[in-house]
Amino acid sequence: MEWTRAVAGLRGWGFEEWYGADPVLLANVSFLAGYRRSSVIDGRLVPAVLAAAGGGRPVAEIERRVGAPAVLVRPVVLHLLWSGALVTDLEQPLGSLSVMHLREEAAA
């Protein structure tokens, strides 16, 4: 890793080694990366998903509250989770029972 540290330093970048992350967390982050681009979602559903998530709700309940097909709502939930508008415990496997919170509510 010394060579990598030296090359990064030449570019003015910082470098650190990181080991031992929770495998569930890594799997969740890897999965969510597929939803990082807004082009994979129906952006018209974003306000409805955010409104439905208020107060902390499981994904399945958010899908019911939005009233659109779950196949359209779930990608919006996952995109908002990736982007940080929604938060949940990423050390637990993601699924329909994962409770989503608005970032502002979680910070309070």
Q: How would you characterize the overall build of this protein?
A:
The chain is mostly helical. It has a single domain, classed as Winged helix-like DNA-binding domain superfamily/Winged helix DNA-binding domain (Arc Repressor Mutant, subunit A, Orthogonal Bundle), CATH 1.10.10.10. It has 6 helices and 3 strands, in the order αααβααββα. A 3-stranded antiparallel sheet has the order 1-3-2.
Reconstruct the topology from this structure.
Blueprint (H helix, E strand, L loop, with lengths): L1 H9 L12 H10 L13 H8 L3 E2 H8 L3 H14 L2 E2 L11 E4 H5 L1
Antiparallel strand pairs: 1-3, 2-3
| Main sheet: strands, sense, barrel | 3 strands, antiparallel
What is the subunit organization of this protein? single chain
- CATH architecture level-2 label: Orthogonal Bundle
Q: β content, as a range?
A: 5-15%
Strand line-up across the major sheet: 1-3-2
Label the overall shape.
elongated
Radius of gyration: 17 Å
| Overall pLDDT score | 94
| Class by SSE composition | mainly alpha
List how many beta strands DSSP finds.
Answer: 3
CATH topology: Arc Repressor Mutant, subunit A
CATH homologous superfamily descriptor: Winged helix-like DNA-binding domain superfamily/Winged helix DNA-binding domain
Helix content: 40-55%
Quick structural overview:
The protein is mainly alpha-helical. The protein is 50% helix and 7% strand.
Comma- or semicolon-separated keywords:
elongated; 6 helices; three-stranded antiparallel β-sheet; Arc Repressor Mutant, subunit A
